Amino acid sequence: MGAGRQALTVGALHHVEVWVPDLAAARRSWGWLLGELGWTPYQDWPAGRSWRLGPTYLVLEESPALTGRAYDRCAPGLNHLAFHVEDAAAVEKIAVDAGRHGWSLMFPELHPYAGGQQHYAAYLENADGFEVELVAIDAPPKTGELDRSAAPDR
Known about the structure:
By secondary structure, this protein is α/β, with parallel strands linked by helices. Helix content is 16%, strand content 31%. The chain is built from 2 helices and 8 strands; from the N terminus they run E-H-E-E-E-E-H-E-E-E. The radius of gyration is 17 Å and the shape is globular.
């Protein structure tokens, strides 16, 4: 492998490209979130922007080839992206700060165990309807209450 290249794993995700209806709004909400998660700006052009974490990058583009302006995560296609977050405290910090950056907490009545007792996460949605799941790598499981092992329909 050439000097300065990171080890790559065959089959690992190379990049994800998300077409958005409003690039300026997406840059504000996604840019903040990706920065909180340790991603760094990578590429920038009039119709798009990307951020990188290790060898993987995420592209947001307001493509001139868009056939519609509305995103529906419940239609066939991408439902959400899930990201690892260090621990429960980091999940909570991002979830609290998210409201100031165009994101709202989904399933607040089930938070932070909307995905089940063994799954500490925040589910966020931005104004365009894109969903992200922030999963704590290190968090205690929920104990002593009704088992909600199945995530709610989304």
